[in-house]
Specification:
The protein is an alpha/beta fold. 30% of the residues lie in helices and 31% in strands. α5 runs parallel beside α6.
Length: 280
């Protein structure tokens, strides 16, 4: 029984849930993910762990409602329970004392970058965080990111809050101004991570990205989450989810993410129709 203890609505599409999962919380580390099912016959959804409390035995996840399964997840309330929760999965973030590091979170990617920034700062790094979203309504956790960062830059694509810029703009400026940046983490939509990697590559700064491509079994058996990294095939679920952004074949990854768009659209339309019928 994986009971939902808390729920918070950040926007029409962005929501947070806190789930009781003592065994998973006890072993969770920054950078890892879990796989959940809303109902027994439901799709397996990979979600990067946004936070964990070992003492309370809880996991925090932030997600956007983009398809049928995440929309269904968004209807649950405190007291409801998930059908299953598997984890922690994937390789945790390599936390060391690097020196000055930059953590970039785009949109819902702000959530998984938070525990990474926290652990990096606890290890003695000077953490500069950049968070951004398309618009102010899609920004969240500014205060939380501020507590784990030595410097925090906030921007929106449309200029509705703080600086009007894509996250790549302040990232490039920092790399031009400082020659001591040891490593960059960039988490968000695949297209954002691609351009963050392209931004850092001329400066030779190692850039770590977290790939949330299509997963099914999350054990490496099905191969649905395969990506090409450095000319070699990798499985996101067991070899990642973090990879060297300079080595990822982004065009192949973006193409693979579009494979099931027709089926996803159909499932979403069917769910919305059924949900609206039940609401009448």
């Amino acid at each position: 029984m994986y009971e939902i203890l808390e729920k918070e609505i950040f926007s029409d599409v962005t929501k947070l849930i806190v789930v009781s999962a003592p065994d998973v919380a006890r072993k969770a580390q920054a950078g890892q993910f879990i796989v959940i099912r809303v109902v027994d016959e439901g799709e397996r959804i990979p979600l990067t762990i946004a936070d964990f409390d070992r003492a309370q035995g809880t996991l925090t996840m932030v997600f956007q409602e983009v398809g049928k399964s995440t929309m269904h997840l968004g209807t649950l309330r405190p007291g409801d329970a998930l059908a299953s929760l598997t984890g922690p999965l994937g390789r945790p973030t390599e936390i060391e004392h690097y020196g000055t590091v930059i953590c970039v979170g785009g949109g819902v990617g702000i959530a998984p970058v938070y525990p990474i920034a926290r652990e990096l700062r606890a290890a003695g790094n000077h953490v500069i965080s950049i968070i951004g979203a398309r618009t102010k309504d899609l920004l969240f956790w500014e205060d939380k990111m501020g507590t784990v960062s030595d410097e925090l830059i906030v921007c929106t694509d449309d200029g509705s809050y703080k600086r009007k810029a894509l996250v790549t703009e302040p990232l490039k400026e920092l790399l031009e101004q400082r020659d001591n940046v040891a490593r960059v983490w960039a988490i968000g939509p695949a297209i954002m991570m691609k351009f963050c990697s392209l931004t850092t590559k001329p400066f030779g700064v190692p850039t770590i990205v977290s790939l949330n491509s299509i997963m099914v079994d999350a054990t490496g058996m099905c191969g649905a989450c395969r990506v090409e990294v450095g000319g070699k095939t990798k499985f996101v679920c067991v070899d990642g989810p973090e990879f060297d952004g300079h080595q990822v074949d982004w065009d192949l990854l973006l193409a693979r993410q579009r494979i099931y768009l027709p089926e996803e659209k159909l499932a979403k339309e069917k769910f919305l129709a059924e949900h609206q019928t039940c609401a009448r």
